[in-house]
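Following up on my earlier message about 3-methyl-2-oxobutanoic acid. Here are the inputs again, as you asked, copied directly from the submission form:
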Amino acid sequence: MSVHKDVKRVTTHVLQEMKHRGEKIAMLTGYDFSLAKIIDNAGIDIILVGDSASNVMAGHETTLPITLDQMIYHASSVIRAINRCLVVVDLPFGTYQGNSKEALSSAIRIMKESGAHAVKLEGGEEILESVKRILSAGIPVMGHLGLTPQSIYKFGTYVVRAKEDEEAKKLIADAKLLEQAGCFALVLEKIPAKLATKVAQEVKIPVIGIGAGNGVDGQVLVVHDMLGITHEFSPRFLRRYANLYDEIKGAVENYIEDVKSLDFPNKDEQY
Ligand code: KIV
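Thanks, got it. Here's what our run produced:
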């Protein structure tokens, strides 16, 4: 059990201390009130209101279609549910890459309208100006490097990133730039474990991995994937902790059966 279950509220400062002490950070995505309440009560350190909501909540193939208004809706539902964890919200595609002024106003909308605690942006040097402008307003920023799903049409596939030297060097340089700019943490997605370990050793801020091995400071998974609600998606890095797809389907099948056979409701289940 996490030592930090004693912590009343997880802040960016608490996360920094956890890295310092070598205590791993556990992060999951969350998009709605009911699931976020369970996740927070279980003692998670960070809930990421990820733009993966575009996939798992809305059924889109990529994260690109989700809007700022939709992210604010999901984030405010999560905020109403939690008591302890830090809530980080993805700035969706098209709300921060264009110019830093737009990035700041998108981040301010998220913070003001949802009550979230921090934002996450994908990319390194190319979005640095936006990162700095958001930070200058006192909004904590989490970076995200490696496989950045908002750039899927540039990458072409969801394969492991930064296997070659040039991309690996750029990733390390970007991680350092984001740290120097003042980001409080970084997500590294789907990169070789050795490279992720090197980044975690070379920066002082917490590095949280997904498909990046165990040499980093914490892990994140999409909650629908780790609970087995989604079942078509099985990358190597995904460990399933439940099989809710089959559980829920079985329960619904039983309900249908009971309704059709007049078994439900019985005498005790009516007024
Ligand atoms: O949107 C998301 O779920 C993410 C995680 C995969 C890190 O960005």
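One observation from looking it over: The mean pLDDT is 97. Hope that helps, and feel free to reply on this thread.
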